[in-house]
Amino acid sequence: MAAPFVPRRQVQPRAQTGPHAEPVRRVLIASKNPVKLKAAQQALAQCFPTLQLEVIARDAPSGVPDQPFGDEETLLGARNRVAALGADASERGDLVLAIEGGVGPSAQGQAGPVECFAWVCVRCPVTGAESTSRSGSFALPPPLCALITGPAALELGAADDRLFGRQRSGQGSGTIGRLSNGVLDRTQYYVQACICALVPYMQPEYYGEPYGAFLGKKSALEES
Ligand SMILES: O=P(O)(O)OP(=O)(O)OP(=O)(O)OC[C@H]1O[C@@H](n2cnc3c(O)ncnc32)[C@H](O)[C@@H]1O
Predict the structure, then answer these.
(1) Does ligand 1 lie within 6 Å of residue 135's CB atom?
(2) Domain 25-107+117-135+187-223 class, CATH top level
């Protein structure tokens, strides 16, 4: 009979103070939208409960329209944001995470509804490792679709504010929050997608060495 599989420990416990103390990992979030920051913080805390994390929000250009349309454009927006921050040597992030909200056709094509979703991209600037994940999606109702399409198309956040009579909804519960009667808000909606994108950094022994630099970061003394 094959020996039972025993996963290796991910993190060796280290002293909390002194020269061998667990080093602080600096994670850059490529947006100052509080919803995205909170979602990333919650996901990171759940994925790496034993690590000391410094999470910093920074503006980063997406290089795509403010309201990306389709998976390709939305994913590109997330990857561009991450690349912009990761390339800034002065930032010295151990990880960079971006969330890009998008709308687009469902897998049913023209026959299906316009859906809302997001792409998350996480990059380790030290090794160039990158991972991506797509959130779940939900159908937008016809009155919202009408506002986000056509020559006078609005961004989904602005369309939501107009239809539901709110302000800065995209920085609060989001469209998913309003449509689900609060069962799921935009923060929690993004937390799962962030966790999925962080998985390779939690399991570098399976995904490959470039994903291991984050967990394996050495303390200053070990480095010298
Ligand atoms: O500051 P940045 O990072 O650009 O954040 P943003 O929310 O404005 O930019 P996104 O490109 O991620 O989102 C595109 C639009 O979708 C809107 N939006 C509102 N509720 C949403 C929800 O539940 N899910 C996804 N997108 C939502 C959001 O307000 C934006 O107008």
Answers:
(1) no
(2) alpha beta
- State which ligand 1 atom lies nearest to the alpha carbon of 158: 31
What residue type is 171 in one-letter code? Q
* Domain edges within the chain: 25-107+117-135+187-223
Ligand 1 midpoint to CA 36 (Å):
9
| pTM of the predicted model as reported, rounded to 2 decimal places | 0.90
Does residue 212 have its Cβ closer than 6 Å to ligand 1? no
- By most ligand atoms within 8 Å of CB, the mutation choice from 28, 33, 149 for ligand 1 is 33
Residue 119 tokens, joined: 């792409």
What is the interface pTM, i.e. ipTM, of the complex?
0.93
The count of other CB atoms within 10 Å of the CB of residue 7 is: 8
Spatial CA neighbour of 60 closest among 83, 33, 30 = 30
Question: Tens digit of pLDDT for each residue in 199-221?
Answer: 999 999 999 999 999 999 886 66
Query: Does the beta carbon of 118 lie inside 6 Å of ligand 1?
Result: yes
Residue 116 near ligand 1, beta carbon < 6 Å = yes
What's the sign of the alpha-carbon dihedral 152, 155, 158, 164? positive
Neighbours of 41 (CB within 10 A): 19
List pLDDT tens digits, range 149-181.
888 899 999 999 999 999 999 999 999 999 999
pLDDT average, residue stretch 69-98? 93
Cβ 187 vs Cβ 39: under 8 Å: yes
Nearest alpha carbon, ligand 1 atom 31: 157
Give residue-wise pLDDT tens across range 126-135: 999 999 999 9
